[in-house]
Amino acid sequence: MQTLYLLNAVRLMLLIALIFLVPPATYAAVDLDEGWEYRWGDSPMTDAGVPEWVLGQDPGQWSAIGFPSNPPDRKGQEHVWYRITLPEGEWQEPVLYIYSVDLIVQVWLDGKNIYQYGTFDDRGRGRFEGWPWHAIPLPENFEGKPIHFRIFSDYTDIGLWGEVSIVEQPALILFIVKNSLEALVISGFSALIALLAMFFALLQTEKKSFGSIALFSLSSAVLLLSESQASQLIWNVPLMWDYLAAGSYYMLPVAMALLLEQWFSDRRPWLINLVWKIHLAYAVASITLALSGLVDLSSTYPLFDALLLVSLAAITVVVVERFRHLKIEQQIILAAYAVFCTLLVVDMAVAHGVLPWGRVPVSWGSLIFSLAVVMISLWHYARTQKALHRLNLSLEQQVTERTQKAEALARREQARVRLLTFENEKTRVLNEINAELQDCISLNQTFHVLARRLPDLCSPLRGRLYQRVDNGKAYELLTRWGYAGEPESPRRIENPDGPPPHSQMLARYSEEKDQSRSEWQVGGDGSLCLWINLQSAAEGLVTMALLFVEVPEEFAADDMDYGTARLFQTLSQGVQKIGIALSSISLRDELRKYSYEDALTGLKNRRYFDQLMEHESAVAQRSDQPLSLLILDIDHFKRFNDTHGHEAGDAALRAVAGMLARHFRDSDVVCRYGGEEFVIIMAGSTAKAGYDKACELARAVRTMPVEHDGFELGHVTISVGVSNWPECSDSPDSLLGLADRALYRAKEAGRDRVEIS
Length: 757
What we know:
Helix 4 (209-227) runs antiparallel to helix 10. The longest helix is centred in the middle third of the chain and has 38 residues, at 362-399. The protein starts with a helix and ends with a strand. The radius of gyration is 34 Å and the shape is flat. The strands form 6 sheets. The chain has a 6-stranded antiparallel sheet, with no helix packed on it. It has 18 helices and 24 strands. By secondary structure, it is of the alpha+beta class. The chain folds into 4 domains: 27-172, Jelly Rolls (Sandwich); 179-380; 449-592, Beta-Lactamase (2-Layer Sandwich); 606-756, Reverse transcriptase/Diguanylate cyclase domain (Alpha-Beta Plaits, 2-Layer Sandwich).
């Protein structure tokens, strides 16, 4: 079992890696949100054990329902049937995905039981066995056939819940992992906070608040992990995960009430004390009764949710009364907890059907709480460090006034201070470099800054800076400093197997001196090689530059000077900070590109069009220059998609986009407006020029074959609407509406033509 758990965990990590390494794929997925019918009660069975309702041998009536969950007029009913006709489509390895079912279900297709979760007894009843997500493999030729769902539930809800869709199995797994990634990361972060808080609770037993924070963070971590859909991929035991989720969920108010009780220890409120005791008793009793089989775990949730609402109201009254008297860090933690509870209550409302279905980011509440704890910890650490620094200065003053030995120690401390001053100077230079980097708008600008300022940072050491070229295949010399003549080092470093080894700090132990010390790993040419890396959203971690620093011979021996080691360490940390600044600039550039670019066609998107059209309209009016606007639509595109598939439709969109990019001037702006619609802004063009260009484009598209997977799929045609200012309109702002109406006339006239307003 342990081996199976490890294999599933490894598989999950590989899937997570695939999400980052493989670009998102387009896959066929159909939501089943229309055409549902329901019927209360349970079906009689044939001698072969097949429900008569599946065979159509039922005189009863089926009623339509928007979504198969909680039909009206339940009146104590514990059995319900749903049915829907499966749609047509093209799938590879199709499965029916259901987010959750209350509580157990049988699925029938073509008179066969194709799936079952839970055990039905002779009366059609069964026990709760967890709330997993379901992936039901669909047999061949399922299209157009009715599928039936037999459901039993003695819970407050009955039926399917969340999402129901037909999707390809590989795409579903990636979808599950991607949707769970946020919860997994935040769960791990909360678990780390819990471990740290537990460690401090053991070290500082007088501070009991650490124990409460550890309990809350651990409960949050377990809750997020258990309720994430990816947990089922780690270990497919849904009921176990539901027990973990319930236990951690029930312990959340216990942890918070204990923390408040410790904060209000001077005037311990009986109400807070009562809250955590009641919730602790409920958590132990409900889990114990569920494990013993006396009650279903699902039946413990409604009572707890009601109890939680009452407890939150009581805690709120107490906290509001004493909030102003709390310390700032306590106020921050309570504010974070309030956000978490708000999200929890909203999620509770969704679970009970008070609010419509939607994914509530409860994990963000846990993250905010964990970040609040980290922020407060860092704040306390900074205050401690400042106090220690002041104390250190005071001790140094006392030491300098004592014996000769103390004076020697003082001189050593003065040397250390000089070294710190030197490091502070390097820190100042590094801060200036980072400030200049923040003002850069491109990576090219950043390398100009680095070429100019790195000599100041590395002084008094000689060095060279190489920049990444040819997509990482080589590095070229960008600048050098400290050399009297031409250096012997190459001006270009080829990179077939990766960059030269990155220099690292090595720890060594000296038996003679009975002490440990650190040395830098020096290259064969006597220099240090430091990588300047940046984190790119598209490529991941990329080594953008190589910094070589010459190591003087007197410092390359075994007795390397401590100050030099500190210098090189400062240099390494500075390079890391520069990499962070470059990552920020790279990410900003990528976000700017993605926000205005259509991912499928590579053209500008609608957001870019809306902003540019407003600008071009103003320019046209101000300069009294004509402005033409073309809007085009691929004819019968839905039919093309239905015939050839969505991937072929994407190929057609890319082909038309490529034709548009080739037929217009660099000054013209081509955008994908949405779906199969495109718009072109032609600044300075007359109505005739716009019309002629549209006719030329229509002819070119008409003769252009569409290819996909090595096959020709035929041809497509386009309809184009043209408008112009000032020939067709009194205002450039109305061009889009006029062009759209012209496009409509073109479609009404038979398509594959151009109309001008």
